[in-house]
Structures are given as C-alpha cells and as structure tokens.
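dumping this here before i forget
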Amino acid sequence: MERWELRRARGKVRELHEGLPVRLATAAQVGRSVTFLEPVDRAVVLGSSQPLAHVDASLCAARGVDVVRRNSGGGAVLVEPGSLLWVDVVVPAGDPLWCPDVGRAAWWLGDVWAAALSGLAAAGEPPVPGEPPVPGGFDAGGGFSAAGEPPVPRGLPAAGEPPVPGGFNAGGGFSVWRGPMRRTEWSATICFAGIGAGEVVSIKSGAKVVGVSQRRSRQGAVFQCACLLRWEPTSLVELLALSAAERTHAISDLAEVATGIGHEMAGRAEAAFVQSLP
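structure:
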C-alpha cells in the first residue's frame, strides 16, 4: 500500500464540510489522504448545485436540523450521528490514482469499498443486515443465480433494454457501477435514489450501500463517501418541500433503494477500508 495520511475530524456538519476546500488545496503538499468525519449534529446536506427550495427550511429549523451545501455534486443526504460512515478521500493531481475522466475517476474507490465490505462478509461479518455471510464474500450462489445468470440489481436495464456500457462490475457480494448515471424520479433530490459511477450496491438486493461524490481542482480531487450504517428514508423525506401525497409516494419508492451495514459495523468497516487502500 502507498502512503496515506489518515485523519479524523469531529464537529458540526457545517464545519466539517467547510474543511473540504482546505483538504483539496493542500493535496499537492499532503499527498493521498483519508479523513474520517464524525458529525455531532443533524443536517440536510445538499449537492453543490441543488436548489435550496428542495428543503422545507422552516421545518428543519423547528427540528434543529441545519441545512448545509457541500462542495461536491449529487442530491440531498441527511447526516446525523450513527447514520453513515463519512469518509473524504483526497488524491493529488498527477498521482497514479488520478484520472482526468470524471466518469471513471471514482472506479478505483468503488473497488476499495467493495473489497472492504466483501472482506467483512468473508470473515463472517454480514455487512448488510439480513444477508448471511458466505465464504469468499459472495452472496448465495457466488453472487449469481442457479442458472448462472447474474442477478439484476435495481438500476440495471430491464429485459429487452440495451445494456449500459461498463455497467456493474461484480466483486464479492457487492457491485461497482461503471456506467453513466442511473437516474430515477427522486435522484435529483435524494442522493441514494440514483446510482453514479464508482458507487457500490449489494449484488443480492441491488440496494445502494455507498454513495460517492467528488470535487476537483488543479490540485487534485476530493471524493466524499457515505457508507450507510442505516437507511431510514422517512427521516429525510419529512424534511423536504413536498406535499403530503408526494411524501407518501417518496417513502414508498425509496424504502428499498438503499440499505445500511449496521451501526455496530462502523469500526470494522473503517479498518477494512484502510486495509483495502492501494
């Protein structure tokens, strides 16, 4: 493994996001770095270009939930203690891991997450509640059906649709998406409702487990990773500017698009992630 600067930061969500430009600006001097971020408050975090109108600001204020805009793209994420494993990964420009193609830049990072989570399963730790570990880190059938055909996770083309170039790359019990953004009715509003390049899903259920967004400059790239510990879409949907009917519809649609690995797995997942770094 190459040298990685490992850091940990704890604080309010807004303050932790404000540190991203500094991490990016010092990429050339520091080199590769991984920062584990621990929030102490609750915040709806919007993507860099996401309209503020997507959020019910008055309701958020009444419930003590901050509204923060991150420097990387994508939809909203509800960040609160114990909800996700938040990791910022910095790669300086010119590094062997640096890729000028934005669509391919996070592929290697998705592979790291897939290897880390599959390694936990191989060690007998089920990284997705309800899915038993199988030797080798694969779900039942080695990640494939009895007929030898790969299962179809959510986001893959339906029967009769042309395959997406790149598509999913099966690795252990998890898949890394290498195709273009897979959009849904809610993906422009909610991060975990869509699947982007380098993101990770469970092969068995197709549910998204790790979301990745990036911010790039001449100094390098920062990849902001969110590995879900739990998925409770109602908590986020209630804070969005939606009608009662839209909320009901969203909660139903989003119930199974993502899944968490369990709060008790946070420490082991961190260690496995670091061990899987190139």
